[in-house]
Prior knowledge:
Structural class: alpha+beta
Order of helices and strands: EEEEHEEEHHEEEEHHHHHHH
Strand order of the largest sheet: 1-2-3-4-6-5
Distance between the termini: 114 Å
CATH superfamily of the largest domain: Transferase(Phosphotransferase) domain 1
Strand content: 15-25%
CATH class of the largest domain: Mainly Alpha
Amino acid sequence: xxxxxxxTVFTGKWxxxxxxxxxxxxxxxNGAVYLAYSQHGYGALKFCQQASDAxxxxxxxxxxxxxxxxxxxxxxxxxxxxxxxTTYFYVMEWVSGKPLDKSVQQLDASFYYQxxxxxxxxxxxxxxxxMAFCDIKPQNILVALGSVASGAARNTLSVRFVDxxxxxxxxxxxxxxxxxxxxxxxxxxxxxxxxxxxxxxxxLSLLLSEKGVSPGLYQMSPEExxxxxxxxxxxxxxxxxxxxLERTLDGKITDTQTFLSEWRxxxxxxxxVKRKTSGQRQxxxxxxxxxxxxxxxxxxxxxxxxxxxxAASPRQTGHHSDWTEWVxxxxxxxxxxxxxxxxxxFLGWRP
Length: 351
C-alpha cells in the first residue's frame, strides 16, 4: 500500500477501534510499521500487503510471546476498509530504543558485554521453542539505555527484538533475510533455520556494526568477502570476545548454550579496548571490575557516583598525630593508675 500520512485517523473493520498515525517507524519487504495511538495507548501498527502475511506474522508473534519476552507483545489484528480496497494490519507493543549498530559506540565494555548476553539469552528462549529468528540484522535489535535513581544512581540497559517476519521453524529454508547478516552470503554455511544460523547472523551484525559495511561488499566474491571479514575481526575492539565471534563464524559454536558459556568465560578477562569514540559519550555500566564485566550480580554505579565515592574516601598516605591522640593516651594511663590504687587498697597493701 502507499505511504500513510502522519495524522491519518481510521477505524478498524472488526474491532471498531480508532487509530491515529503518529509517524513511520520503518519499512520492510512485506509491509511498513507505524507508531499509532488508540485506546490501548501507543503501539506499533504494521500494515501488510496480503491477509496471509498479516495472519502468519500475528500467529508467530503470539507463539513467541508465550515463550519469551524479547519480542513485542501482540495487541490486536484487524482490517482497514478504504476506497481502494482492504488493508490488513496488526498492532503490537511499541518497543523503544536504538538499533544495535547505532548503539554500540555508546556502550562501554561492561554494557557491551551485557547487551550481547541479553541477545543470546533471547535467542536461547526462541530456540528452545524450535524456532530461529533468521533476519537478525542490527535494525531488528533495539537497545534502550536509561538510568534509575533508587538508592544509588545506576544506569540500565535492555535489549528487545522487533520484526517477526523472518522467524522460521527449525529445519526449514530461511524465507526472510538480510545479506550482510546471512551466512550463506558470506559462504559460511547454508540458508537453513537453525541455532547456528542465528548465531552467525548475530556475530556478523556485531562485527559489522563496529566499522560499517564496505561500499563494494556486494560486488566482492565470497573469498574476497571472507578476507574483508578477517580484517574486521582483527580490528574488533575486544579481542577476547572477538575470538568467540570468530569461532562462531567458523562453525565451532553452533548452539546458544555454548555461545553463552564461551562469551562469559571471555568476559572474565579485562578487554583490550581499541575503540575510538570520536568524542561521543559512552554509556557506562559502572566501574569495569572483572566481577561486573562477567555479568555477575552487583550494584552498578554510574561513573560520576563512583568518582564521588572515591573522592569521599581518600587513601591514607601517612600517619599524622594531633592533640586528641595525646589526650587519649593520658586518659588511659590515668585510668590504669587509678585502677591499680584501688586494688592495692582492697588487698590491704600499704607503701
